[in-house]
Inverse folding.
């Protein structure tokens, strides 16, 4: 067992943990980063599968993600726009496939009016929500004790309008059924992106990608930290007191003045805390759970859909693949479609064997793009639900009533232990931008505490 002493031990080498470690070391504190996996990046992972470069995890950059954009500039990384020329596709409640341009789906006038009214109502409510304190809204309790689905149905009797608006948050973002989370949780999701309209606008929320892959952010941060990053080091015990912390991994023990827990709060149970976490924290973590989505990558010899004047963007709350996009890698002649299978539908297809699941998913893509979609040269499913150190995707969210009850305590330090993760973010919630913001905030809090201790 190797034992080392540092000012700060950071548990988790995702964007949040590495940002915190980088900021702390830049300010003169010594750090050790312990990562359970054999790689850095957490839910960011750019990999080569059968000769195709794929973004297994997060990948998109939007204009409001200023913390991420600043980091990309600092690291010298460039972006390129998602392909969006041509028509998008939508399959409605009647089963008909329609081409369209713009943001609003090609639905009947009545449904379009209902969707427009719902979006306006949600935008108005979102404007009243502080993403860092949604529980402070005057109607927080009422909004947090009604499911998003029930709230939508109370606003509109148009079933297709409700299904489409639910799609933007439930399947596309929180990756849970709309009956499983509250209206307040949905408003936090919208407020974290600036408005509900931003969630509706795929050209905004899925604006750009990073040349070479988004995992370069943690890779380059880790490169700057060098030997202070320890891979294959799952922390199984964290002893803490006013005097500091001791983090124990199988072959490494780190003594430090402070710790940063930079992992999803749903994974805290993997660590034995001595003494146990305070009662409120113990309760809080029992009301958080990960969503679940399968990210499907299908690579073809060429982007054939472009020949038909299609952008590759497709939506339907009634299809197995509820959304799909042209995800062709920068500089690549082959074409890639990325599709998403979410929540209950993801559960259902994992009852099938791998070949049948692939057939079902490719059939769903073919319902948008035609028979050629059934024949990719590379096929891969990102299944974060079975990944030991993640256990779901994209992020953790509260059950009904949990956000207003426990949200104010989600980011509160526990003695010398500070918390940083995109699951805890306000602005940038569940995105890399939020992870960077939380990493910066944890580092700033520790620096303040260290200076106060030195002054005493």
């Amino acid at each position: 067992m190797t034992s080392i002493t540092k000012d700060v031990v950071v548990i988790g080498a995702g964007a949040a943990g590495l940002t915190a470690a980088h900021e702390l070391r830049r300010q003169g504190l010594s750090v050790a980063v312990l990562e359970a996996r054999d790689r850095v990046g957490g839910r960011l992972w750019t990999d080569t599968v059968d000769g195709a470069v794929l973004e297994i995890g997060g990948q998109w950059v939007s204009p409001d993600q200023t913390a991420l954009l600043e980091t990309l500039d600092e690291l010298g990384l460039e972006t390129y726009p998602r392909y969006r020329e041509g028509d998008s596709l939508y399959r409605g409640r009647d089963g008909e496939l329609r081409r369209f341009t713009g943001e609003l789906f090609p639905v009947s006038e009545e449904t379009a009016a209902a969707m427009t009214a719902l979006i306006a109502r949600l935008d108005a409510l979102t404007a009243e929500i502080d993403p860092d304190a949604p529980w402070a809204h005057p109607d927080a309790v009422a909004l947090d004790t009604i499911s998003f689905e029930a709230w939508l149905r109370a606003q509109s009797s148009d079933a297709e309008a409700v299904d489409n608006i639910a799609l933007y948050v439930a399947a596309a973002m929180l990756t849970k059924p709309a009956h499983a989370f509250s209206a307040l949780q949905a408003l936090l999701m919208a407020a974290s992106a600036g408005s509900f309209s931003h969630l509706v606008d795929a050209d905004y929320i899925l604006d750009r990608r990073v040349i070479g892959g988004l995992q370069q952010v943690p890779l380059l941060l880790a490169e700057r930290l060098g030997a202070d990053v320890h891979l294959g080091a799952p922390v199984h015990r964290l002893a803490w007191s006013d005097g500091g912390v001791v983090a124990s991994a199988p072959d490494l023990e780190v003594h430090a003045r402070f710790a940063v827990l930079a992992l999803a709060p749903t994974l805290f149970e993997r660590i034995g805390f001595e003494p146990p976490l305070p009662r409120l924290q113990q309760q809080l973590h029992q009301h958080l759970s990960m969503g679940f989505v399968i990210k499907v990558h299908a690579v073809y010899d060429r982007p054939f859909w472009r020949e038909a004047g299609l952008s590759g963007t497709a939506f339907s709350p009634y299809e197995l693949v509820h959304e799909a996009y042209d995800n062709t890698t920068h500089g690549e002649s082959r074409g890639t479609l990325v599709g998403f299978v979410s929540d209950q539908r993801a559960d259902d297809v994992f009852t099938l064997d791998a070949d049948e699941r692939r057939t079902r998913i490719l059939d769903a893509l073919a319902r948008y793009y035609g028979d050629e979609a059934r024949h990719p040269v590379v096929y891969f499913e990102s299944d974060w639900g079975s990944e030991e150190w993640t256990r779901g995707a994209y992020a953790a969210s509260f059950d009904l009533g949990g956000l207003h009850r426990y949200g104010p305590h989600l980011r509160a330090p526990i003695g010398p232990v500070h918390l940083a993760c995109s699951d805890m973010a306000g602005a940038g919630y569940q995105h890399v931008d939020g992870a960077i913001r939380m990493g910066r905030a944890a580092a700033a809090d520790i620096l303040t505490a260290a200076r106060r201790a030195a002054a005493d």
Notes: The mean pLDDT is 97. The chain has 16 helices and 22 strands. The first strand starts at residue 2 and ends at 11. Residues 2-41+215-277+414-455 form a domain with the FAD/NAD(P)-binding domain fold (CATH 3.50.50.60).
